[in-house]
Amino acid sequence: MTATHQVEVFFDGDCPLCVREIQMLRAMDRKDRIRFTDIAQPDFNASDYGKTQDEFMARIQGRDGEGQWLEGVEVFRRLYSAVGLGPLVMLTRLPGLAQLLDVGYVWFAKNRLRLTGRCDDEGLCQPPETRGT
Question: What confidence score (pLDDT) does residue 126 get?
């Protein structure tokens, strides 16, 4: 990650909802503060980052400018702060709302494949072929 990036986000480029969010963030990232890494790309290798593909698929992952790993709602907080939405981020830290967002994200992460149409008729949900494991 370069010194200009405040945060790196590892996103699932095969997830339509995720891609819409990333497109919005790219458009808002006028100062190039976010590094976007698509974990669905064939050349992405999870082991290069000391993680498995399953870890990247289970919850959104990120790293701050010092290389510290982040996951879940905290990644979104860092992304929105990087594009100038700090006041919105402050609200997500309020007691009660913070816990609600954490619970909501965990539910979404567990159901993301189904919610984004990546399950078969029998309900078997699998991401594209496992890469980098």
Answer: 67
